[in-house]
Design brief:
Elements lengths: L3 E6 L6 H12 L3 E3 L18 H6 L2 E2 L12 H17 L5 E4 L2 H9 L9 H7 L4 H11 L1 H6 L5 H14 L3 H8 L6 E8 L2 H18 L1 H11 L11 H8 L5 H24 L5 E4 L6 H14 L4
Parallel strand pairs: 1-4, 1-5, 2-3, 2-4, 5-6
Helix pairs in contact: 1-14, 3-4, 6-8, 10-13, 11-12, 12-13
Length: 305
């Protein structure tokens, strides 16, 4: 049997942080974050990083890894966490992963094709073409990849063309050559909360973030500069737009709430496609301990605990 990695996944506000800490305490292990925005230093309030108390209770990895002006790919994530997982296994411990970034989870369980570095000049040139022209060009260069693409998804079409042009190889060929999953047994648990409970929790969290100084955090980060990835973070992009005069503050806050609700829905959709994932309904669990008891039962029934 392969060595195990336990994954606690699900949408924002589902309670992943609290549950993963309870689990890591019981197992005497460490937590690896699977959140693509918590890797950025100083993006603290808007990404809802674990508190200093929580970080002191259980060692965490993949939090505060890079500067906000840097990009960080799923391939880099995979390369960084692989030795952490190996060390924990060598010590006889089962790593606990927690987060809502589906691409990070898939990078570990299925492997990922990282591809050449971004070529922003080429991207800008390609973006001048229509979606139809981009799709036709991709179909000529790499028919297999073209068949997998949404003809209206310009971002993905541009990336596929960028890879083909800069590498001189088909993206499908490169993906086949480089995509290898990690050799572990992944125990995947998804936390589910009913929408009627989750959405008010999201709105309350956004209000709390604003009270804790999210606007000031964003103002300081905007002066320093953010990477293209960090600029897409919910809570940051809306408040940056407010600072540019595009929205009133109240409008920006409502946009954050709306976009977070939509993001949670997309997270559910993504993880429902994740093979072998066991869903645990934590609706009504007012504390991390209550939610963990439900998760614990599922893990115990599966022979993990």
């Amino acid at each position: 049997m392969n060595e195990r990695v336990i994954m606690i996944v699900g949408p924002t506000c589902a309670g992943k942080t609290g549950v993963s800490i309870e689990l890591a305490r019981e197992l005497g292990t460490e937590i690896i974050s699977a959140d693509s925005m918590q890797i950025y230093r100083d993006m603290d309030i808007g990404t809802e990083k674990p508190t200093q108390e929580q970080l002191a209770a259980v060692p965490h990895h993949m939090i505060d890894v890079v500067e906000p002006a840097e990009d960080f790919s799923a391939g880099e994530y995979l390369r960084t966490v692989s030795p952490i997982i190996k060390r924990l296994h060598d010590e006889g411990r089962v790593p606990v992963m927690a987060g809502g970034t589906g691409l990070y989870v898939r990078a570990l369980t299925e492997g990922i094709f990282d591809g050449p570095d971004a070529d922003w000049d080429l991207r800008a040139k390609l973006m001048e073409d229509s979606p139809e022209a981009l799709y036709k060009k991709l179909a000529e260069l790499d028919p297999e990849t073209a068949r997998e693409q949404d003809p209206s998804n310009v971002r993905r079409l541009v990336r596929a063309l960028e890879v083909c042009i800069n590498s001189g190889k088909k993206m499908s060929q490169l993906r086949e050559e480089s995509t290898k999953p990690l050799p572990y047994e992944f125990i995947k648990v998804g936390l589910y909360r009913d929408r009627e409970e989750l959405y008010p929790m999201i709105e309350e969290r956004v209000d709390e973030m604003m009270e804790r100084g999210l606007l000031e955090e964003v103002r300081g980060l905007a002066r320093r500069g953010l990477s293209r990835t960090a600029l897409q973070a919910i809570g940051y992009k809306e408040l940056i737009a407010h600072l540019k005069g595009e929205y009133k503050l109240e409008e920006a806050v409502e946009l954050i709430k709306r976009n977070t609700r939509r993001f949670a829905k997309r997270q559910y959709t993504w993880f429902r496609r994740e093979e072998g994932l066991k869903w645990v309904d934590v609706t009504g669990s007012g504390t991390a301990e209550e939610a963990y008891e439900k998760v614990r039962k599922v893990l115990r029934d599966a022979g993990v605990l």
